[in-house]
Specification:
Radius of gyration: 15 Å
Order of helices and strands: EEEEEEEEEEEEEE
Mean pLDDT: 91
Helix content: under 10%
CATH architecture: Sandwich
Length: about 140
């Protein structure tokens, strides 16, 4: 499956911070038939390594999450000329209660990786939505 990243956004809601990645079909007129294979794992630090280059990347916070989407990219490589499908920032600093920074760790050989820096370790869960296809990570925030 080929999925094109089209949007990355964050937000705060009562009780949780939210990170959303939105995907579309790889070429105009095509239909994306489902969520790309993905994993979201907790990290004890906010130190990551850029895919492909191996360069270090540290995001704000004291704990992290690593999101990996297989068969996905912010670039449509299936068109005759390379087309950028995600034109937003590769380094978001929303300053939310828990999610402090979200940065692209890699977009290499159709494996898309994003690192999330959190103020402290937190419980999270993942939701998948359709129409459009979205991967949503909700991270619990401290109660007030």
């Amino acid at each position: 499956m080929k999925a094109q990243l089209t949007d990355v956004r964050t937000g705060h809601h009562p009780g949780y911070d939210q990170l959303t990645l939105e995907f579309a079909a790889p070429t105009a007129g095509a239909t994306l038939r489902g969520m790309p294979a993905y994993s979201v794992t907790s990290r004890p630090s906010t130190h990551f390594v850029h895919d492909g280059s191996g360069l270090p990347l540290t995001v704000e916070g004291s704990a992290g999450l690593l999101l990996i989407a297989q068969g996905s990219s912010g670039w449509d490589t299936l068109t005759p000329t390379l087309v950028q499908t995600y034109k937003g920032s590769l380094d978001l600093r929303p300053g939310l209660p828990v999610i402090r920074e979200v940065a692209e760790v890699g977009d290499y050989e159709r494996v898309l990786s994003w690192g999330v820096g959190m103020a402290s370790p937190a419980c999270f869960h993942v939701i998948t939505l359709t129409n459009p296809i979205r991967l949503v990570i909700e991270v619990e925030t401290p109660s007030s």
